[in-house]
Design a protein that fits this description.
Layout lengths: L5 E4 L9 H15 L6 H7 L4 H9 L5 H16 L11 H10 L3 E6 L3 H11 L7 E4 L11 H10 L6 E5 L2 H9 L3 E5 L5 H4 L6 E3 L2 H7 L8
Parallel strand pairs: 1-2, 1-4, 2-3, 4-5, 5-6
Length: 221
């Protein structure tokens, strides 16, 4: 039996290298409203968080729930118009096949808005690969709080210490550790040197690299 019985994936920057699309969408949004770009150190801390946490920082004021909903829809529509032609990170599809063969339960836990999930998974051709999908809007606290990963584990029917998380952001790595789960970081959004400060259990460039070291993570049955 594998050491891990459940694998929980973040979506943006973890299943695909789409963070440049989000950055571009936010750039267009910021220019549209004449906002100031946040400093680099602030922008890094916003990656992996929900729009309800990002937008007040961009506007530099408290937003009403109605404003958050309206601005979020506007920004995400800009993003979705850029989705055509995206591809999964190298090795992802093969890795998902191996997890299925080893009967590891696969879940998705993403801070992305609900409206983005289905189009992204469809563009990648992996719509039916996840046994459970948990959204940031479905839990009380977003990453770096552990809520989303604990909820994902419950939906997968597995204890936290039997779950392994795949993430690309500091907030996501912190959330995984807070949930008592081990975490593999994908150096897609950030270089490995930057991710190292978040102390993930392993850093890989993509799933092809992960497959080369996988026997240490998933011993043969």
């Amino acid at each position: 039996m594998s050491e891990f019985t459940a694998a929980i994936f973040d979506m943006d920057g973890t299943l695909l290298d789409n963070m440049p699309l989000h950055f571009r969408a936010f750039q267009i949004f910021i220019e549209r409203y004449g906002l100031r770009r946040p400093p680099a150190d602030v922008a890094v801390r916003l990656i992996g968080k929900r729009n309800s946490e990002i937008l007040p920082v961009l506007f530099e004021r408290t937003l009403t729930p109605e404003e958050v909903a309206r601005y979020s829809c506007e920004k995400e529509q800009i993003y979705r118009e850029m989705l055509a032609g995206v591809a999964p990170l190298p090795g992802l599809l093969r890795f998902l096949d191996i997890l299925d063969q080893r009967q590891v339960r696969i879940g998705l836990a993403t801070s992305a808005p609900r409206e983005n999930v289905a189009p992204t998974l469809e563009a990648l051709g992996i719509t039916n690969r996840f046994r459970a999908i948990t959204l940031g809007e479905e839990v009380p606290h977003g990453k770096p709080a552990p809520d989303i990963f604990l909820e994902a584990a419950q939906r997968l029917g597995q204890p936290a210490d039997r779950c392994i998380v795949f993430e690309d952001s500091h907030a996501g790595i912190a959330a995984a550790h807070a949930a008592g789960m081990r975490c593999v970081a994908l150096a897609a959004t950030h270089p490995a040197d930057v991710l190292r400060s978040a102390n993930p259990d392993l850093i890989v460039t993509d799933y092809d690299e992960l497959l080369r070291v996988m026997p240490s993570l998933f011993p043969p049955p």
